[in-house]
Write a structure and sequence with these properties.
With 228 residues, this protein is an alpha/beta fold. The chain contains six helices and nine strands. The strands form three sheets. The protein has a five-stranded parallel sheet, covered by helices on one side.
Length: 228
């Protein structure tokens, strides 16, 4: 695992041809038309991963199995602009096996296809410096922390080949009532030893850190930018 500050690649990377510049930089061409990549997104927002995949591999190079977004306005945007197989109205429906789907206007089962890429931006409210309660209580006992645990369960159960989790810089700051930052908990954390402080009544000492996932064979890297 390495922690590095993100470096700007220049103003031109804000241009519409950023994907071509990236492929030129790494000397790669992507052709997944014979076997499109399977993408899923959680807490999907305006679906930046969908647009990035279109630029990188083209519309024929990937298939988005589902998105999950709890807020109505982003869901409306996704329905109008993105070709997602399903649009679940809560990330918690994923590990329940199904739930309300805005794409089909009813209850849908979560597809069981193999997942290549998971991109998720779980809620930043518990960890953000803009939250006046940020340094007054354990971030992971907040209700808004629940999506992280649901995403973690999905990673354990479905083992996507690539996982990208996005959040705010506040993950690196101290977490009250604990000895580590929220990022340390995400990577190596265990439940508190007192039952009342555990996530949703799970057992004390339960291992939630991503590095505790056995037999996955992934290396967890963390990059950050000073402008978050």
């Amino acid at each position: 695992r390495r922690i590095e500050r993100a470096h700007s690649l220049g103003f031109g990377w804000h241009a519409s041809d950023w994907a071509q510049q990236l492929k030129a930089l790494i000397g790669a061409e992507f052709d997944f038309t014979q076997r499109p990549l399977r993408l899923v997104t959680g807490c999907s927002g305006a679906e930046a991963p969908h647009w990035a995949m279109q630029d990188l591999v083209g519309e024929e190079g990937f298939r988005q199995l589902w998105a999950a977004e709890i807020n109505e306005n982003p869901r409306r945007f996704i329905l109008r602009n993105c070709n997602t197989g399903h649009l679940f109205e809560d990330i918690c429906f994923i590990m329940q096996g199904g739930g309300r789907c805005s794409r089909h206007g009813g209850h849908c089962a979560v597809p069981h296809d193999e997942v290549d890429i998971l991109v998720a931006g779980f809620p930043c409210t518990p960890y953000s410096f803009c939250n006046p309660k940020r340094f007054k209580r354990n971030c992971f006992t907040e209700p808004a922390a629940k999506p992280f645990f649901e995403i973690r369960r999905f990673i354990v159960d479905r083992r996507p080949r690539l996982v990208i989790l996005e959040n705010v810089r506040g993950l690196l700051a101290p977490n009250p009532e604990t000895d580590c930052s929220p990022m340390d908990f995400i990577l190596r954390g265990r439940n508190p030893e007192t039952p009342q402080d555990c996530y949703e009544g799970t057992e004390p000492g339960a291992e939630w850190g991503l590095e505790y996932i056995q037999g996955y064979g992934l290396r967890w890297d963390m990059f950050y930018s000073s402008v978050w």
